[in-house]
What does this fold into?
Amino acid sequence: MADREPPYDPWPAGGSAEDRHQAKMDRINKDMDAAKAAMNDNIRLATARGDNLDTLQDKTDHLQNQSQTFRKGANRVRKQMWWKDMKMRICIIVGIIILLIVIIVPSVVASRHS
It folds into this structure.
């Protein structure tokens, strides 16, 4: 409470008009310095916020590019795996057909000769 200024008195007791004018000017200068300091802080904070927003924008752009690259890679791998699965199925079907031919053809040929 010792830091508080006394309430404003436009006509303080005692002192000349010049002293009152000087005191008023000092008070105005003090208020303007406080306002200037507050504005400088606000400008500094706004600039820092702008820098943070720019950094965030750069990070989101980079993440978007990475996600597109990942999506393309994932689609490529999915297609490769589909072809690999198809090749395996075709090999199994061909193997079964060959096995059936190996089993059925000799028994049919043997039954015709008998």
Remarks:
- The chain has a mean pLDDT of 87.
- DSSP finds one helix and no strands in the chain.
